[in-house]
Design brief:
The N and C termini lie far apart (41 Å). This protein is α+β, with helices and mostly antiparallel strands and 117 residues long. The protein is globular. Helices cover 47% and strands 18% of the residues.
Length: 117
């Protein structure tokens, strides 16, 4: 039974799924917006929202917690550049924009995941 199980499996094993989410979040932080499938965007959105909320505390322990999920360079950018923009915002740091695009091989809906200004 699937009681209290959260998140999508994305047709991957646990370590591959974790690496995929980390990669999506890293690319979002570096580029500001990414184009991906709807399911992957929703999973990445959950993780990035939590990381920004932690980073808003602006203390050393928050930076260490972010470093558990991201590389040093990306964690620094999130902590010092992105999180301060959202200090007065209580949530909803990212948005998913639905597009009319579909992936060629399997027809998956493609969306754009970006930061809210």
């Amino acid at each position: 039974m699937k009681h209290l199980k959260e998140g999508r499996k994305l047709h991957r094993k646990r370590d591959q799924r974790k690496a995929l989410k980390r990669s999506l979040v890293t690319n979002l932080i570096q580029k500001g917006r990414i184009k991906t499938t709807k399911a992957k965007a929703k999973e990445a959105q959950k993780l990035i929202e939590r990381l920004i909320t932690v980073a808003k505390k602006q203390d050393f322990n928050a930076l260490r917690r972010i470093r558990q999920h991201l590389s040093a360079k990306v964690a620094q950018k999130l902590f010092y550049e992105i999180a301060p923009r959202y200090l007065k915002r209580k949530g909803g740091y990212t948005r998913i924009i639905h597009t009319s695009l579909h992936r060629k091989n399997d027809g998956s809906d493609l969306v754009i995941l970006e930061f809210v200004e």
